[in-house]
Every structure is written in structure tokens, then in C-alpha cells.
Description:
heterodimer, A: mainly alpha, 2 helices, elongated, B: mainly alpha, Hydantoin permease, globular, disordered N terminus, disordered C terminus
Amino acid sequence: METADFRRELDRRLAVIEDPDHHDPAADDLPRADWLWLLIGSLVLIVASLAWGYPW
Amino acid sequence: MVNANNKPDVTSSTAGEFTELPVLPHERLWGFWQFTSVNVGLAIATWAFLTGGAIAMFVGVKTAIVATLIGNLIGVVLVAAATCLPSAKYGVEQYTLLRTVFGLNGVRALVAVMMPLAEAGWNAVLAIMFGRAVTNVSNAVFGTDFDPNGPMVIGMSLLALLLGWLILVRGPVSIEWVNKIVAPALAVLTVVMLIVLLAGNSVAELSAAKPLDAFAQDRLNFAAALELSFATGFSWWTIMGNLARLTRTQRAAFWPNMVGIFFASVVAGMVGTMAALVLGEVDPTVWMVPLGGVVLGVLALLFIAFANLTSMVSQTYSGGLAIIRAGGSAVRRIPWPVFVALLYAPSAIVVFWPAALYDNFFKFVAWIGLVMAPLTAVYLTDFFLLRRRRIVVRELYQPEGTSRYSFWFGVNPAAFLAVGAGALTYFLLLNPITFESAAIFTYTSASLPAFVVTAVVHAVLTVVWVRPAGKGGYREPAAAATVPKQEVEEAIG
């Protein structure tokens, strides 16, 4: 199914990705602080919204 | 990008874009603001008005704000985490990464079934909206009295599909083009609608507007509006991963979703809800002339028709490429014009009954929730909980039988069973065919229990069955080469 060109290009890219000296900033996981802000912000928004407009 | 057979060449490109090859750092185009721009462009589309109108069936403005905020927030956060972070981390397309969840042949089956159905549904809705917009222009300008479900609408809907086919057979369509023209104009239209609504109605009048077709119990109405908002958030599952792999960091992959498909969607949806409540009509094509007068209203309708056409073309193109990649050589042999015609054909049948789908858009959204909530859950559970975010990129491209992600004959039955269990849970809580719900739905919604059931079933089946069988590459740690360098250095001290 895959062409020889595709395989060659794939191998070239994998060689770059698997090089121990290669570093892609996108590979660094989302910082824990971001997850914390997301959790706090979401909870505040949900609780405040429910308190304001839920049909109790 | 189009080869001699007039078919987009999706395998030989070395550009990294629109191929299943992993992208390299210098090919990642988008920082925070670029992805935010793309994200907002996706969010402010005419489907936001449709979902806003659907929510107005069940709740008034105040309750709609709460349901829309909470439902979209939870749906978008889960989808962004499940699809954007893995694709950004490894620079790999979502449907290539999903081989780690469903197996190579499993992804093929999933795409082969899901994509044509999703294309058929969305294209039919957008084509009928195009048809009704053009028909309402005729009614406003020429004084005609065409029926919203009559032959004129059907004819115009078929014309929309024909135009979509003509545009697509000419070759690839850039999402950037849609973003540069359609999205800003739709944003302006949304703001103008909001100004007109607020100028013409006091806050008290807006707050007092009654829902259009509500149940007897307020809490059930809230649950229905919340469920539609969950489903709207989950509906982004199909496309966000492929976009996020072009971002430079995981922050740039995640947070723009909160600006775009969360916040901008909520604003556009709420404008739709307010318009529907004030005008007593869920169909966005009916709002424009009463809101803007004949001249502005007709211009808005013509623009909505154009925007629907661009939405149809761009989503059919991306879905079509996914089907080509999943289908392999058998699909590649189909001439491109015929392939595109096959994609549009189911919609061309559906539009002969405009009211069946378009006037039951809220049921269509519920079907989306039934499918997308479990798919989000199974991907999120697999990547974050079971694999601890570790994927061996090389193994994604090994053939079935060789790859550690082969499972059984290229299919992971545990993932499909989990998705099935989640979908069944959804169906038992909220029947998308009739929109009848179980008593507990008022307190649980349907998407969240479906999400939880899928996650639990997938985790349990993997731990007690798949991993002990040595399948799916769950047992061994990922090769150090695919672990970020910083983590390797930390691990070896």
C-alpha cells in the first residue's frame, strides 16, 4: 500500500525523532500548573454558573 | 498535491502537512495565537446558530447560559486533552495515533463506518440550511411563498451539494482560506445580531422569553440543554487532533481550544439561543430578515448560504482524506470525482425530506453525543491512564502482525466493547430516536455516564485481558528514543 517514497521519507523522519540529541519542545507535557489552573477555573465556573442559574 | 489521476496525493508529500507522516519541529506552524485563530474560525460557524436554536427549545436565556457554559466546558476540555495533546506531543495525525487504541484494522473499520455517516448527516443539515436561506431570500425579495420543506428548498439543497462537489473535484481546499474570509465575516454577523437583539429587547424581556418546546419539568429541560451542550463539545473529537499536531508546544495545542471551540462557540451559540427565543423560531434562516430588515437580512442569508458551502467543502475534504488513508489501495483506485460524489450521495437522498433531519437537529446532536462521548473516553483512558502518555512512533507504521499495536489481527476488541458499552449506556439514558429519557437522566445527563462507563470498561478489559495476553504493547516500557530527552536524562540521573 505504501510507496517506496513514503517509506523512505518515513525512515528519514523516524531517524530524526529517535536521535537521542533530538528535542522537540512539543514533546514536553503540559505543565502541572496548567492542569491545576484548568481544574480550579473549571470548578469555579461550574459552581458559580449552577448557583446563578440552575432551576433549583 | 494532486496527482495525475486528479486525486489528492496523500502519501508522497514530503511537506508533512496532510499526510500521515510524523511532523518535525521546523514543520510545526502554529503558536498560541495562530491556533487560536484557526480555532475561533472553526467555532464561529453556522452550526453554532443551529445548536443555539436547538437549546432554545428547552430553556430560557438564563438557564441556557448555564447549560451552554458547563456542557461546552466539560466536553471541550475532555476532547482537547484526549485528541490535541497526543497529536501535539508526537506530531502524528489523530487517526494514526488511534492505532494504539483500536489497532490498524480497527481504525480502518471505525473511519469507514463513522466518517461517511458523519459526512452524510452534517452535509445534509448544511445543504438544507443553504436551501432554506436561498428560499427565504426569494420570499423576502420577490414576495414568493415557498414552503420551508417544499420542492424549492429540496432543489436548492441539491444545488448546494452539486456546488460542493464541483469545488472539491478541482482539488484540495485550504482551511486557511475559509478562516481568512468566512470566519471573520461570521464573527461580524454574530456581533451585529447580538447588538440588534440587545438594542431591541431589554434584559428583562430577554430573561422572560419562554422556551419554544419545553418539557413540563424545569430540571429535565436543563438536563436536555446540558446534554446538547455536552454533545456539541464532544463533537469536535473528529478534527482537533489533526490540527493540533501542527502546534509548537502542548500549551499552544491545548489552551486555544478554550478560546475557540469553548468560548467563541458559547458566544455564537448564545446569540442563536437569544434570537430563537425572541423570534420564537429555531431555524436560523428565519431570523435574519426580522432582525436586520430586508436588505441586511437578505445579505446575511446569502452569506450564511456561502458559509455553509465552505463548511461542507472543508469538512468533506478532511473526512474524505481520512477515508482514503483508512481504505488503502481499494479506495485509492476510485477516481477522485467519483469518490467525492459517493461522499455527497447519502446527503443528496436525505435532503428530499428536509424536515426529518433539519427540524430534528437536536436529535442529530444527541446521536453525535452517543458516539463521540465514548470515543473521547476510550482515547483519553488509553493514552493517559494505560500508556502513561508513552507511544513508540515507529511501531505506528509497522504492518499488522509486526507492530506492537497489532492486537488481534489488527483489531483491539476491548476498545470496541468499551465504546459499545458507553453508547448503550447513553441510549438507555436518552434515546436519540425519540428523545425520551430515563428518570435518572435529569440528574446524570447521558454523555457523562457514557464517558465513565466507556473509561471503566476499557481500563478493566485492558488490565485483565489485553495486557496479560501480551497484546497492544501495554506491557513493555516505551523505547527511550521516543521519550522526551529531558525525561530520559532525569530517569538516568
